[in-house]
User: Fold these one by one.
Assistant:
Number 1:
Amino acid sequence: MKDFSNIENATPIFVGAEIVDIISEYTEKPWYIFKPEETGVYKIEYSKDTIDTVFVFEKPRHFFQHSRLVDKTSDLSRKRWIELFYLEKGKYYFINVALKPYLRYGSYLLKLEEHEVPASNTRETAKEVDPSKIIEGRLDYVTDVDWYSFTMKEEADYKIIYSREINDAVFIYKADKNKELVPVSDKMFLVNDTVCENYHFEEATYFMKVEHYKFRKLGKYTVRIMKEEPKQNENVKIENEFVKDLVEIQI
């Protein structure tokens, strides 16, 4: 059973805080309390040499439960562990630092930062973007989902070109519908490690969902939405060239 001794003396911790202290098996267990102002993914960074792990608990009513750990990695250059937690606005979270079992004491560093706050993990919290500009995002853990919203001011055919790492993981929805749009043609794999899909957009607002897909690597991705230039009718093209030549002859 988890030892909650000294939790009533938890020290408030805030975003951007960097705590340096000493931990010992003979002293009270260090607890910290945090209340997020926004729902999102927060990063907890701590010393790798002295700290075995950190525990994050929430107390919604009369019991403690583990908070959702979404990823854990290490920064070898600075000898620190980095953990990402999904925390909700308005709740209280208790952070406990645990000393490595083979140590009796040691100094440690504990740092709390925002990682993706506010999170755009749901359609309701979608990030509004300009479809004429390149969209840059990042998938940090296997359950990460990024939602975007954009408004088309002109009905036309568009190309959506995105990083190959998110192939089969890009979904487009019309704002008033939950069924994903189907591209108007087969996807094309381009030579610069990108994928192209063609869509027909009306004057409306759309949502785009990007999620991690199977065994593909995590990290940065880009999405670009480009308007398709209308193809000129071949007969009209020939006629225009004929008129141009005729004008030049007359001159």
Note: The helical segments are 234-250.
Number 2:
Amino acid sequence: MTRHIITDKATSLGALLRHHKLTAEGGNLSQHGSALVYVVRDEEGQRLVIKDGGRRYGGSEQAWLSAHASHPGVVDVLDDVGGFLVLRWVPGRTLSELPIGAGHHARAAGELLASLQRTPDPGAASLSRRIIAAGRRLPAAAAADIQHCHQRLTAALAANWATDRRQSTYLHADFHPRNLILSSDGLVAIDPFGLAGPAAWDLAQFAAIAYGGAQLDEPPPLSHDAILTQLVAGFGRTPALLEEMAAYWLILVHRMRQKLGRGPSTWIDTIVEEYSRRKPCRRQRSTCCA
């Protein structure tokens, strides 16, 4: 079965290259477990991107991009064949590559998220699938605080969001500094998962990774609270479940750093402990979101 899938993908990719008369510039550019990504040039020498859209956690990148077609902050889809997307090249650097730090663009990121709010596609998978999948990857010896926070967030989604799609938005669901390009016209979002859930997820993910992303060896110039405050200011309101989502994402980033062999991060430990003392985490037990 796997061999057939690989063969079909190769056939689709070849058909795309021939149909658009494209020439690949190099090999796969994907990083951090992303799908296949190739930079190509057309007959006029213009750069384009070919990406294996795939489906992450049941979401559809193509469907999300189509729902936001013509939005200046979303990469344009030029064609879609066999699961491969032909995307317009966006010149610029990702926020993770900027020496000033991604947090300084938090307000602009919040404004972009506000402009991206849409009713989810009827077939969009729930964010619950993403969180459940993360829970399955927790090691057997995972600290109780991680398990408790995961369980609380899963329960909150099941009770308040998964059963009431009117309160959901069409999430990018992988909204972080490596997926935001600072172009000459502003921020452009790339590589969405396309899931239905509360807007707080995208804000919390950006804040946690901008503050403590694995690419950082030293504390960023802005605190986590400062980044989150600017995100909310740009977004225009404080979305429901933001505190819970923020605590959860700080835990995920902390665990990611440990998995990648990063040294002790007292600045991450401190903010995680602070969130464990906040009211949303004291409703059931004080360690639920530590």
Note: The beta strands are 23-24, 37-41, 47-52, 77-81, 84-88, 93-94, 169-171, 180-183, 186-189, 195-197.
Number 3:
Amino acid sequence: MKKETRIAVIAGRGLRNTRVYMLTVFRGKIVEGVEFYKANSSFELSSAIALSKYYNEIRIFIVMTGKDPFINDDFYVRIAKPIILTHKLESVDKTFGLSIDEARSVLNFLVKSTFIETIEFIDKLFNEAIELLGELEFEKRG
């Protein structure tokens, strides 16, 4: 894999009656862009990502939350790019469009670089943003 290859990392979490996702696009070790999505189905999420300004440049999607209810066969068909489901880059939970060995090779490449430090920071930032959104929604209703 080339160092300039664009990789998209997806983090998602449930929030009330919907799921919120953050798509972070990397070009090497550099964060090229971040987008947020709200989705109620696999179709909504895949449609939003396919309309992203980064979509055509992305070569691989990595889903950091491991198993996700909206990342499934239908999502893969609509996205039409390789997807790796992993838990914090530690193990491969499932793949779409890649073999398990190819997915492990990609993850090993990313872990050996300082990419993992950036991923951990982005993951922490996303979780804090979700907590804040949850608190704001709670205050609105209360």
Note: The mean pLDDT is 86.
Number 4:
Amino acid sequence: MNDHLDLTVYERSLIDNGVRIAMKENDKSSVGSTDELIKNYHQDSNLGLFELRSKIKTHDLGKYEDLSLNDLKLIANCLTLWDDFTYQKSLEETEKHKVEYYQNCELQMSALREKLSAIELHTMYSGLL
């Protein structure tokens, strides 16, 4: 197994979409709160998401070590948000080609999750050898 993070442009796009959805959800939660601590938490969280988004979009992301376990878990959470979003969209859509698009996204998402899971395992256990 090589130690390079081979994410396709499409996979990076899926992750980016998930991160953007997470950022929007943070904004909604922040705006709806009157507690300054909660607002600061969501702003800090969005800063971390922005940094992750920048890291994923960079062209020289090459080794597993470029992503921490926290990054990988955050990506997984963002993909879950994106998955929920596409599922809701597929329920709302009535045009056949759009439903097929969301079904294809779901298949790609599943493959990406498997890849990220393997990377996470490699990252966790590579320091133990």
Note: The mean pLDDT is 77.
